[in-house]
Every structure is written in C-alpha cells, then in structure tokens.
Amino acid sequence: MRTPPRPLTRRGLLTGTLGSAALLAAGGSLAGCGTKGAQQTEAGCVSEDLSGTEKKLAFSNWPQYMDVDDKDASKRPSLDGFISRSGIQVTYTEDVNDNNEFFGKVQNQLAACQSTDRDIIVLTDWMAARMIRLGWIQKLDPAKIPNVQANLLPSLLKRSFDSENRISIPWQSGLAGLAFNGTVTKEVRTVDELLTRPDLKGKVTALSEMRDTMGLLLGAGGHDPANFTPAQFDDALAKLKKAVDSGQIRKFTGNDYAPDLAKGDIAACVGWSGDVIQLASENSKVRFVAPDSGVMLFSDNMMVPNKASHKGNAEALINYYYEPAVAAKVAAFVNYICPVKGAQAEMEKIDPELAANPLIFPDDALLAKSKVFMALDEKQEKEYEGKFQQVIGA
C-alpha cells in the first residue's frame, strides 16, 4: 500500500496556514458565534431525512485523508466498496483545508438553520466542540452505527464534548508529546526537562496549538487536561512563561519544527507523533516520547450538520468505516492513528510493517496515558487562547 508524503498534518494546516496571530484574530471575529441568531436547538432546527428515497450522500473531508488506488488516483477503493454494497452514491469532496476556514464557509447557513449541501463533514475536536455547542450538528442513532459502539477505541469514549458518541465520530486520530534528536542531545523524558534543562536552553520549540502545548503542561503539573480549573491553567501557563522569558524555548511553531529537529538545529520539542515517526524512518536518533505525565490525543471527527437531508445514508457510511477491514484500508494509506479496534489484525494481512507502526496503532500503555483536551465554552475559549497567545508572543 502507498504511504503518502506528509508535508503538513491536519494540525499543521490549522497552525501553519493561518499562523498564531491570525488564529487569534479569527477567534475574535467569531466571538459572536454564540449570540442569539446563531445558536440553534434540536427542536428549533428540524432536519428531514430523505435517505429512504434518495440514495445519495455528500461527504466533505481533508485532502489525502482517504485511500486511493495505486494505479488510478481517481479511484478510492474503500469508498467504491461502500457504494457497491449500499447502492448509495457518494459525492466526495476534499474541501476542508483548515478548521477556521471551513467554519467560515458554512457558518452563515448553519446559523440560519439552512442546508450546507453536505451530509458529512470532518473537523478537529475543538471545532467539533464549538459546532456542537452552537447546536449545529444532528444526533446520530446508536442503533444505526453498531460498529462504532462495538469498535471505537476505549481512549476515545466519553469525550467531554460528546460523552455518548452520538454527535461526532472519530475519522482518524493523532498524539502530541515530546521529541528529541539523539545526535545532538541525550534523552528527554519529561516536560520539566524540556522547560528547564540547561543544556537545552535555546534549542527547544513548542507548538503554537494551545490545546497541545498547554495540555502537556497541565498534565506535567499534576492537573487533568480533560478537566481543569482557571487556576490550574494559570499555574501551567506560568511555567511556560518562565521558559519563554529565560530563553529556554526558542520559538513556537506549526509543523515547521520538523526539518529543524531532523537537522539538529533544535534538540528537543513539543511535537506530533506522526511527524516524528516519519522523521525517525530517516534517522533512528529522532524519537517521539510519551512522558509519564501523559500525551494529548486529538481526532478529526465525522459529523452530520443540521439540515443535511441524508442522515440515514451518512450513518450507514460511518458504520461501514468502523468495520476493522475497511478501517485498515484507510489507515494503510493515511498513516494516522486508526480509531477502530480490530483494524490492526486486518492490517497485518495488508502490510505487517504498518501493523507494527506506533503511529497507526499505539499500544494500550500509550493510549492509557492519552487525554483529550477539555471542551471549552465560548468565554473560556477566548480567555485561555488570549492568555496563551500573550505568552507565546503571537
């Protein structure tokens, strides 16, 4: 199976495309998104499901996030399999390039309880949480997605923004943790080492994605990134500020830390597992570290927006992609963490090397250390993001 190049991850598209300052500005421009007129309720914005008479479905996803035939790039084997089996025609569009950008595409329609002409959209946890908070997403019928109930990884159950797994279903996932280049430094095992070790001064970067960097610092301080108080956030932020003021941290980055880490221009960093494991394939001295205090787990999630008129068809597709054999086909191409139990055994039939790849199938011990960042309300999002941006100098 093809392993595609990964110059920019889903998280990198968020931070790399807009930049930290632009993100703050974008967050400010959306500050009114919870005001009257944008907020919807299930009773106030009713969607009609035409799946019984219309065998079609519109699916919006990120680029390079679906398996493609090696010999014909216009074919998507797993999706073609669903179409053949179900008789549901799928219009598949790679038009999610950035969470905030996509929000801008659909916010006017969803705020007004109008159709976006999409039946499935795929967005990252924090944006999924925002849309759920606004009442813009339809609830799924558990009886129609039994494979999700049976096969979703335990680490992705009971997430704070969708505790019953009825609104957002993980498509793929990833981890944020530590990384170091062993050709220029000794092993880095803890967040405290990264922030304070004298030999690393000026040779460290951290991520401009607030939820990943601050999630790791909260965990290192003995706090729960999935459930913390303002005082606990401020405690973790004070440690970050100290590392910035002392010159320990050189800069905050999107994916652009990766080439610097590979070359040894930086010695250690906060980074994403997928990037680091790709680097490690070229240099075994580059290593990803999951500190004992924990790693951050993020997902990009399938959701059915309000006024989507083919919810039943969408549920059929979601259920299909939670068949382990189907999930393995996708994972073999995209190389992100597969959220489906049983897919690793199926991957062994496709590519044993990929089946052993921790980027795709982290072991139980690693997943037990993982946390999903706490869902924030509108006020918290503005407050925490603002404080973080002030410290990182965006």
How large is the count of helical segments?
A: 17
Mean pLDDT: 88
Through-space gap between termini: 41 Å
Estimate what percentage of residues fall within beta strands. Answer: 5-15%
Describe the structure.
This protein is an alpha/beta fold and 394 residues long. It is 40% helix and 14% strand. It has 17 helices and 10 strands. Strands 1, 2, 3, 4, 5, 6, 7, 8, 9 and 10 form a 10-stranded mixed beta sheet that branches. The longest helix is centred in the middle third of the chain and has 16 residues, at 230-245.
Would you spell out the secondary-structure blueprint of this structure?
Elements: H1 10-18, H2 20-29, E1 56-60, H3 77-86, E2 89-93, H4 99-111, E3 120-124, H5 125-133, H6 146-151, E4 169-181, H7 191-196, E5 204-207, H8 210-220, H9 230-245, E6 249-253, H10 257-263, E7 268-272, H11 273-280, E8 286-289, E9 295-303, H12 311-321, H13 324-334, H14 343-350, H15 352-355, H16 364-368, E10 370-371, H17 378-392
Parallel strand pairs: 1-2, 1-3, 5-6, 5-7, 9-10
Antiparallel strand pairs: 3-9, 4-7, 4-8, 4-9
